[in-house]
Specification:
- The complex is a heterodimer of chains A (309) and B (336).
- Chain A has 309 residues and is mainly α.
- Chain A is 73% helix and 0% strand.
- Chain A contains 13 helices and no strands.
- In chain A, helix 4 runs antiparallel to helix 5.
- Chain A is flat and about 85 Å long.
- Chain A starts with a helix and ends in a 12-residue tail after the last helix.
- Chain B has eleven helices and twelve strands.
- Helix content of chain B is 30%, strand content 24%.
- Chain B has 336 residues and is α/β, with parallel strands linked by helices.
- The chains are: A mainly alpha (309), B alpha/beta (336).
- Chains A and B meet through helix 8 and helix 9 of A and helix 2, strand 6, helix 3 and helix 6 of B.
């Protein structure tokens, strides 16, 4: 087990190196650089480029960046002078995270529940209702859903604040907006896999023992049906906790989501690199967690002591 | 002998979008204490649906019980509510299935799966339940039961899994064990072991067995009575000896001829088969379901359903050849 984890972590380092190299090449392939504002005087531009080392050849910049990266230094932002990339992630990420994990919990709890209920009532009212919710969740983008929720529950009914403040209550609407499409995805997937498991022979066996429907679902269906959900949970977790520019703009959250778009727009090289590496690390770690979780749920996938599978 | 189960004129249909499939038509048989009854027939003959009806395991809908009765100790199973059925399943009737590779839950230890029925029906807990489960594992001759108890199905071989299935089915000492093609998915040497084990256990715990199979070779040694089904109907019904040596139905003859035998030398060494395919149960033929494939078919066979002719003591055959005006046809199966 330990050897397996170490092996996976070493692989993660290699993956991160590939990702950061590719990002580095791609971002420098973009036209212009952070200091192309026509209002800047040429000598100021020149001075700024020299300050951030952009006047050096690309290969040299790459080596310098990688050396710093190994030391754990992600550099400083070129657009917000004096603020380190690490610092910016540190202040914005917790805000996105607090929305993200709530969105994930909402999506998981209601998605699983809805999926199982739909499967158990195959082609009856509950099934069609869950299909309806799923279609809404998938087809209404958060840029529409967010304002609608904010308007009805925030402005009209006044149940929740429309912007995020320090209260728990203010997190409800943005979390819901962020989580609804995941909720829909999870409920559809859970419905499909539950139906599949319900058709398995071992469910007949369970029934032939005299177990009730609730007992069968609880003891025999859920654990076998949940595997594909675990699979998508890794990337989903990473995606949700790193925030969404749309949701964060609508509900005025100063989270990480915005940087995914604005840093590229501004060509803030160290920020692009920093955020990409941060996101990639989260994905890799959550995938590792998923792979380890497989073993707990399905004994056939347990990692052997020797480190192989 | 005490009559445990009585199936009377059972009619089972599937309601599908395309129409009604009459899977079981007018099936009747009795099961006595300690007896093994075999239901034999090819795929689609209605044998599995009949067996699952006894436990009400067929999904309802689409399955609908159109008529007849299934009397377990005198009580009609078809009138029971789902809650009452749960008390019968596992405690009065146990069942083992065709494919041991897929009939056990892959995410639950074998021991837990054996104890489940026990905890449900007999209110035993913890250590006591474990003791009984271990005893069952020993009884089905699984070596190293203490270790096996905590293992998962994927750590068992096919034959071992079927043994575990038998342990699950018998853990509450049911009156009836329904074995739905219990050896079909196993290789031949394991088949014999499983059949021997079932016989052995039957002697020990005095359970009655309903053995469903398409393989007459399997039942010869195991069953006292045989019901031959075809097209959702019972075509012949008698003791094992009667069916094997005094059969009065061409379908049974066809089945018997298609069993490979070592004791009969033939000029051409091809194994016989029954030509044609079973009837469409969407619109079953008016007459005998086997008429289209039968080499002895007469005019009347296509027009009218043959009644159950009593051709021997407790030996019934639904074939017009047994009518007194029918041409005399010899049983082509010779006693070896």
């Amino acid at each position: 087990m330990l050897r397996y984890i170490i092996k996976r972590l070493l692989m993660a380092v290699a993956t991160l190196w590939v990702i950061s190299t590719l990002t580095f090449i791609l971002m420098h392939a973009l036209p212009n650089d952070p200091f192309t504002d026509p209002k800047l005087k040429p000598e100021v531009k020149q001075a700024l480029r020299e300050k951030y080392g952009l006047d050096k050849p690309l290969s040299e910049q790459y080596v310098i960046y990688m050396k710093n990266l190994i030391k754990g230094d992600l550099g400083t932002s070129m657009k917000y002078p004096g603020r380190s990339v690490k610092d910016m992630i540190k202040t914005s990420f917790p805000k996105s995270f607090s929305l993200g994990w709530r969105a994930l919990v909402i999506a998981l709890v209601f998605g699983l529940l809805l999926g199982v209920i739909a499967a158990l009532n195959h082609q009856k009212t509950w099934d069609y209702l869950s299909i309806f919710i799923a279609i809404i969740g998938v087809s209404i983008p958060s840029i529409i859903l967010g304002p609608i929720l904010a308007y009805f529950f925030g402005v009209k009914l006044g149940w929740f604040p429309v912007t995020v403040d320090k209260t728990q209550l203010s997190l409800v609407l943005p979390s819901l907006t962020l989580g609804l499409s995941s909720l829909a995805t999870i409920s559809r997937l859970m419905r499909t896999t539950t139906l599949e498991v319900l058709g398995q022979d071992y469910i007949s066996t369970a029934k032939s023992k005299g177990l009730s429907k609730v007992q069968i679902v609880w003891k025999h269906v859920l654990r076998n049906a949940i595997m594909p959900i675990i699979t998508i949970l890794g990337p989903l977790f990473a995606a949700l906790i790193t925030g969404s520019i749309v949701v964060e703009k609508i509900f005025a959250v100063a989270g990480l989501g915005e940087y995914f778009v604005s840093t590229i727009w501004e060509k803030d090289y160290p920020m692009i690199m920093g955020i990409t590496i941060f996101y990639a690390t989260l994905i890799i770690l959550s995938m590792l967690a998923v792979d380890l979780a497989y073993g707990f749920i399905d004994p056939r996938l347990r990692v052997s002591k020797k480190g192989g599978k | 002998m005490k009559k445990i189960l009585e199936v009377k004129n059972l009619e089972v249909s599937f309601d599908t979008y395309a129409g009604e499939v009459q899977a079981v038509r007018d099936v009747s048989f009795d099961l006595y204490e300690g007896q093994t009854l075999a239901i034999v027939g090819e795929s689609g003959s209605g044998k599995s649906v009949t067996a699952k009806s006894i436990m009400r395991l067929n999904p309802e809908p689409p399955v609908r019980y159109k008529g007849g009765q299934i009397l377990l100790n005198g009580e009609n199973i078809l009138e029971k509510k789902e809650k009452e059925m749960q008390k019968i399943r596992g405690s009065h009737i146990g069942m083992i299935f065709q494919d041991p590779m897929t009939s056990l839950n892959p995410t639950m230890t074998v021991g837990k799966q054996i104890m489940e029925g026990l905890k449900k029906h007999q209110k035993v807990k913890g250590k006591e339940a474990k003791e009984i489960a271990l005893k069952m594992l020993r009884m089905v001759q699984i070596p190293n039961p203490e270790k096996r108890f905590n293992e998962y199905p994927h750590q068992f071989s096919g034959g071992m899994r079927q043994r575990a299935m038998i342990a699950i089915a018998l853990v509450c000492n049911p009156q009836i064990l329904i074995a739905d093609e219990p050896t079909t998915a196993l290789d031949v040497t394991i088949q014999a072991q499983i059949l021997d084990l079932m016989k052995d256990l039957q002697n020990k715990i005095k359970t009655s067995i309903i053995l469903i199979t398409h393989d007459l070779g399997v039942v010869a040694d195991a069953a006292q009575r045989i019901v031959v089904m075809y097209g959702g109907k019972i075509v012949e019904h008698g003791t094992t000896d009667q069916i094997f040596y005094e059969s009065r139905h061409p379908y049974t003859w066809g089945l018997l001829k298609s069993v490979p035998r070592l004791d009969i030398k033939k000029e051409n060494s091809r194994l016989d088969s029954i030509e044609g395919t079973p009837p469409d149960l969407f619109s079953p033929p008016k007459g005998c379901p086997f008429a289209d494939r039968c080499e002895y078919a007469m005019e009347i066979c296509k027009k009218r359903m043959p009644p159950q002719f009593e051709v021997g003591k407790n030996h019934y055959s639904a074939c017009w050849l047994n009518h007194e005006q029918a041409p005399k046809v010899e049983n082509p199966i010779k006693r070896a």
